[in-house]
Task: structure prediction
Amino acid sequence: GFLHTAVCPVVSDPEPPICTNSGLDGGAPAEPALSEHEYSLLGLEPPICRPQPPLMEAVDDELYWLYPGMTSEILWDDSMCTESSRGVHVREVMHKAFKTTLLPAQQQQVLQELEADPKLVYHCGLTPKRLPELVENNPIVAIEALLRLMTSSQINEYFEMLVNMPMSLHSMEVVNRLTTAVDLPTEFVHLYISNCIQSCENIKDKYMQNRLVRLVCVFLQSLIRNKIISIQVHKDLFIEVQAFCIEFSRIREAAGLFRLLKTLE
Result:
């Protein structure tokens, strides 16, 4: 720094007197009492001028300083926990819907809640494994829930459970309503039709078999007339349905479906 370049205020004598200490004991000469560094005033170091730093100008987006003495008024949010309490109530009603048929008032309440907040379907306790229970006990609720799950990443799992569940009037009602409301995957519709045909063929009870055959024929006629499926384009499915009609040609609905297929050839 400047300490080594400063001018020392003490100038040494070029010819300092030599002092000797010739005491009675004849000792060595005495050393100087103080050295140059001990009485130095650290030199005449020039002062360094440092200008005072300017204050930073405040801007609009600058954070405000919080003063400890400033008091704030506490505001209460009346809407806190409203959504969670609604979700809990819907989950309780849905838990009943998995086991038994809901009362009309309960069913309407669930539908209104799902309509008001479609995201509640993700928090109501519905899973792919529980879908068959909901379909059999409350098909209307199942339809509305599936419509709001169409954008879910698990929708294919719901379709898989719907295809593999035992065929019934309620399951066909759900699939029929879904086909008229949204565009279902073609593979799912064809697989469900094949499952319905196999279920009719495997039933041993003649009364139940005739009843399910009628339901399947009416269901297929609805899909064909509403142009949900182009059965004439898919030859494998066309042959399968045609063979089904021939096997149960004794039933009036099967004969009517067979005539409808002939008009499509």
Notes: The chain is about 50% helix and 0% strand.
